Amino acid sequence: MTVRTFKQTLWLTLIRLAIFISILFLLVFLILIFVRGGKVLSLSFLTEAPRDGMTKGGIFPAIIGTFYLTIGSILFALPLGVLAAIYLSEYAKPSFWVSTIRTAINTLAGVPSIVFGLFGLALFVNIFGFGVSILSGSLTLGILVLPTIINASEEAIKTVPLDFREAAYALGATKRQTIMKVVLPTALPSILTGAIISVGRAAGETAPILFTAATFYTRKLPKSILDEVMALPYHIYALMTEGTAPKYQVPIAYGTAVVLLLLVLSINLVAIIIRYRIRRKKKW
Amino acid sequence: MIKENLFKYLSLFAALCSIIFLFGIIFSIFREGLPIFKTAGLFKFLFGTAWYPTSEPAEFGILPLIVGSIVVTIGALIVSIPLGLGSAIYLSEMAKPGTREILKPFIELLAGIPSVIFGLFGMAFLSPFIMRLFHLNTGLNAFTASIILGLMVVPIISSLSEDAISAVPKSLREAAYALGANKWETIKKVILPAAKSGIIASIILGFGRSIGETMVVLMVAGGSAMIPKSIFQPVRPMTSAIAAEMGETVVGDDHYRALFGIAIVLFIIIFASNLITESVKRKIKR
Fold first, then answer.
1. pTM of the full predicted structure?
2. Do B21 and A204 touch (CB under 8 A)?
3. Of the residues A106, B118, B179, B277, which has the maximum number of CB atoms within 10 A of its CB?
């Protein structure tokens, strides 16, 4: 073996090792969470409220809380994001303002989630007076996922062929009619994929809701959007860091993690399936 | 016609919202945080080594928190650069198409897992393991946090680097092989240099993600606000100080302002690293 071949064998082995370690870690991680969390999973775990200072019972209020927060954030961010994407891809001409908007979107995408939480605390909780509530949390999460939605929607709108638009114009449609009746319906499945991925992200975020929406323990379910809620990711954190009976709390944390993981993974799976079907159905 | 214009301006407004929100974030953290630079003194705030926000008199020196963030972030990059870059090279240069189709989504899956679950894994599984392995007093330290954070950043570095590597024209590879280079020589001397800017951009993005990540360091890094003497000591990175202490503050007091002050420092670091990534990306486009 020459030095050259030896070097090649050595480095290619190291590269294989790198991907092997990454995959191995992911497997160990998933198996551990599912095995330890699977033990506490049951129907009553999903449908009951916590009891005895978080040491027994289920996580129903946290599931409901996460549901409200994610729906709220998407209701806020999806229309806003799609409209912004329409402006950027259909109306905007290259200018100082457009490049400023793009820089703002990219910067927003990189802002740490805890800073979004501080922003939500300062603006929605304190200045607007929404308090620690579903509303404050949803708005904060909505702004967090907005860049993802804008980027995905813009990509989706860009893939609509120019012919479609020209055909609509030739039939006498105005620009708005073309966008609403031709461009958006064609791009809709891809836009939805982006929206679904954002739902997964919003459901799993903890830091933005720490000070804006989440509470460790509440017996009652939220009655209005101004109530504070329990949430799955925050529940895991709280079980691990608060309370006095880790022996009972850690298994519940694992169980909550399995529920959250299944939720996020199945949301992502739906997105993957939609994307696959679009690719198959596309005829243009 | 009114409808047409209304729709156009409505969409323009939606697009402008991104700028409004960004300025809202900047304005609110500066409004709440700037006063502390005056009260505590900018230099003392940034380079003071004592973080005792609740004692009398309180001391607001965030150097231990900055050092904590930097130690954990560098540690995370030491883990994630070789793993992520190795995975990227494997996926784009060595894997058979079938293998690639399976492994790639699998690694991307790693990016979708909520960070609090990584935190749980680090706290309940990895840290007791590290504690026994190295005979430490606590497994909740900068070392454990770096490992978890590093593994979280692997998919970011891997997917962006892979894009950059895949974008290298096939003709360059063929030219290298024609000159008698073997596979590794082609990767090292031709492909990696050609994909350099994209790889650097992926690393900077990984840096930004690590330094801004909250839940993992909050749960796993140990939380001690002291400048660590070794990587096996607990640290309190900036994000974890904000998350852990905001609940103890009263709106408008010095501690509250100091935590917003930390957010300003964090924001400036992230903003600078974003600007670098943008300029690198622009370079690639050219």
1. 0.91
2. no
3. B118
